[in-house]
Amino acid sequence: MASIWEYANPVKFSRTVQVVLPWVSVGAAVALAVGLIWGFFFTPDDYRQGSTVKIIYLHVPAALMAINAWFMMLVTSLIWLIRRHHVSALAAKAAAPIGAVMTLIALITGAIWGQPMWGTWWEWDPRLTVFLILFLFYLGYIALWEAIDNPDTAADLTSVLCLVGSVFAVLSRYAVNFWNQGLHQGASLSLDKEENVADVFYFPLLVCIAGFVLLFVALVLLRTRTEIRRRRLKALIARERMA
Amino acid sequence: MPELGKYADTVLSAYGVSLLLLVVLVLASMRASRKALKELEKVESRKNG
Hints:
The structure holds 2 protein chains of 2 kinds.
Chain A: H1 10-41, H2 56-83, H3 86-118, H4 126-147, H5 151-179, H6 199-242
Chain B: H1 8-48
């Protein structure tokens, strides 16, 4: 069996992406289409939230991916810091804009849902505030990559920023439990049957989450391969100038 | 179209904004990938030939 470290080779990684990407993309498209159509067209209104419950199929998967994208960046950043694999650093760089968009979707859909349900677009509630900070961390991380010319230095500094930001990724997941105050309710998905959403909402939500996960994987693969191509392009141009 | 009642604007705007952001992200990623490949092929063909 091939070792995972073989994929640290950019050529091997790109070849694998070539094979895997179409399948993951189709999986993402099918799961998103099924989940969203099921949730939007074929689930009932909630007795308290009315039709706004349909926003759960976007808000929860996006929020989940916003947090987990940062954890994926944390793992790949640690691999960079410890083993100095360039593909790993580029994967973290590739994931950041996806995580930022997921965080933005979670914030916007939350605000749109909150207006009729809580009577306000925004509240300085622990979870909302921490999520906003996480979004700012994403922007800072992307800006830091762009601001530094030397790619290894950029990878080092963004990895450190990623470690610091992980505190907020953890807090955004557990803010409701830690502070036990504010407007935001607890987890929509829970192993505790009492806390979990009703089955009629739960199953399409699971399909939507699978769709968001597959979309994230597809985009990370695509964008990492783009970063590898850019890196090679830069190296070739530099070699041309020196010749 | 399901009956969304008094929250129709709320639900539709949430879906509209989210799907728009996702589509822009996917298209931008694909465009950047194609652009990088095209430029790389150009430089590699120059190098080889």
